Amino acid sequence: MDQYNFGVIYMYNYCFDYDKCRDIFLDFEDDLKEYYSSVEKRCFTVKDNCFIDSFLCENENNNKILMITTGEHGIEGYAGNVFLQIFIKEYLPILKYNGISVNLVHAINPWGMKHKRRVNENNVDLNRNFILERNDLENSSFLEMKKYFTKRRPARKSDLNLIKSFLELVPYMTKLGNKGITEALAKGQFVEDKSVYYGGQKDEKSTKYMKEIYDDIYNNYEFILHLDIHTGAGPKNKMSIVNSAFSNKESSAWEKDFGYSPVVKTDKSSFYEIKGDMIDYIYKKYKGKNYFYSTCFEYGTYGEGLIGSIKTIKSLVVENQEWHYGSANSKTKEKVDQMFRGLFYPGDDSWKKSFEEDTRQGLNGVLKYFDFFK
One Pfam family from the UniProt entry (predicted)? Predict the structure, then answer.
């Protein structure tokens, strides 16, 4: 079983199989019915037996809601599944369920989760696809680095060499700087449909569905607390609370309120700018219409140092290359898969330990601040 590793017994199932994770999620129904008189199970088909599953749990006269979304970036849904396991076992029983509803969403990008990709069935990064107005989407830094990010040939062993990767990056570092490289990769791009961080040309099927869900939730509650679960970015083995660039409150104030650090914003100064970000979309559409706090719990893996940054870039680029153009041999594919999993769902004990500890510390701080505990 996946919850056993090197003699350590984990309370939670660190599964790496979409169908098994889906079963784990659907089994939450009985737990939820212990606390809520109405538990509505929703199932939206995306493609090839891949579903956005959710539970909307309510008691009479509830006017607040806790919403947890996972798997917007496919493969990150495995960590999201563990997060939901922790929530159900440790936090559901101590929530003010008479007054606070719960909406749990499993795998916004189920196809990506099933196929262990970050993007969806159309190679679209869904967190670059939540766009209100399709203007000002140019990413000049990506255009400068397009050749680096988009290799139209099978992946080779040498593509995974970190020293070679660093040397290839040096000219771009000289021209664009570190922030320019980050912008080129992470800001999102809308011109190359077989490259990384592609935001698409229209709303994807999952995006349309989630926009309907958000309309339902954000227009029917007095207060919404929304946590979106991600992995891959930020300090090594550390969860960052990542607020929208459109959140007015300073990160240092949130850190004091939650008793948790780091708290950052999706802007150039503290994290990185994103076009088509889902949380930004929520702030732009619903701000001023009701009271809510929507944020991201982002669990770091490879880290922000030089080696970690190179491994992150290389994992993303070569996985994309291997998917579209194949690999030289099976060993290369295996190495690509291992590096990509390490970026989003590491199997080592130290990451699992920090994941659980930071989840508890983050949830304790956020839920206590908003008075969601009994």
Answer: DUF2817
Size of the chain, expressed as the number of residues it contains: 374
Distance CA 198, CA 182 (A): 15
Residue-wise pLDDT for 122-152, tens only, equals 999 999 999 988 888 999 999 999 999 999 9
Q: What is the pTM for the complete model shown?
A: 0.95
d(CA 262, CA 255): 7
Residue 340, SS3 per DSSP = helix
Nearest CA to 274 out of 125, 174, 75 is that of 125
Exposed, middle or buried by CB within 10 Å (0-12, 13-18, 19+), for 96? middle
| DSSP H stretches of helix in 129-268 | 140-149, 162-186, 205-218, 251-258
- The answer to whether residue 128 is domain-embedded is yes
CATH of the domain at 104: 3.40.630.10
Q: How far apart are CA 261 and CA 54, in angstroms?
A: 30
- Tokens representing residue 220 in the block: 């029917």
The owner of tokens 């599964």 is 15
Q: What would the pLDDT profile of 279-311 be if each residue is shown by its tens digit?
A: 999 999 998 877 999 999 999 999 999 999 999
The total number of structural domains that make up the chain: 1
What's the CA gap between 363 and 90, in Å, rounded? Answer: 10
Rounded CA separation 5/14 (Å): 10
Neighbours of 223 (CB within 10 A): 16
Indicate whether 252 belongs to any domain: yes
Pairing outcome for strands 100-106 and 50-58: antiparallel
Domain that holds residue 19: 14-132+200-305+348-369
- As a whole number of Å, the CA-based R_g of the chain is 20
Bridge partners, residue 198, by sequence? 189
Output DSSP code: residue 10: P
Domain membership flag for residue 90: yes
In this structure, are strands 223-232 and 64-69 parallel, antiparallel, or unpaired? parallel
